[in-house]
Amino acid sequence: MVSGATDRPQARRPGGRNARVRERILAATTELVARDGIAGFRYEDVAETAGVHKASVYRNWPDREELVVEALLVYAESLASVADTGDIRRDLVDFLVALAAGLETPFGRALEQAIQPAGHDVTIRALTKVLDRRVAAMQQRVNNAVDRGELPPVDSSFLGEMISGPVHLIITRGMRPFARPDAERIVDVVLAGIQSTGIQT
Asked: How far apart are CA 51 and CA 45, in angstroms?
């Protein structure tokens, strides 16, 4: 027998049962928040929807608000990412297409409602974190574009607001489905304006 072999606890494999349970709980939480809103959110419903015991929910998230915030952040993570392929136009268009797709889901619409003045504090806290991440990702992508000469020096926050604003407007007003040509037109107009001035906005 190898000395000490029975003394060491077995290493827990990453992505094990607890990780799968957490994923199911987070998915159930996003589904319920989208359906019922924050006010009607209950641990019992999360456990039933996720197919787990209520104790599993409490054990992983003793704080109800932290569960909601984490679920919103996981779901909305894609809304905050900006790829860097070396083509700033393509990356911004892809970003708007992904943003629109997320906002057009039932959960995305619930998030949009939370932005309104009557939105729940928990949802607003999560949204604030998502927006902070989006600003940071956009800033990094724009800075890279400026360093490569793709863009003149530009305020990344302003650029982000200029291209994402029309998406939110089209989605929230239900004017029409948002398509890739919409994203291309928005990005082209904004980039043309930035390139023509050649100065920091």
From this structure: 10
